[in-house]
Amino acid sequence: MSDISLTYKIIILELLSRAGDPLSNGQITDFITESGITDYFTAQEAIGSLTDADMLEVIHSNNNTLYRTTDVAKETLRLYQEKVSPNIKDEILSFLNKNSLTIKQNSSLFADYEHLSSGGCLCDLRMIDDDVLITELKLHVTSEEAAKTVCTNWKVRCEEVYEAVMDRLIG
Question: What is the average pLDDT score of the chain?
Answer without folding.
Answer: 87
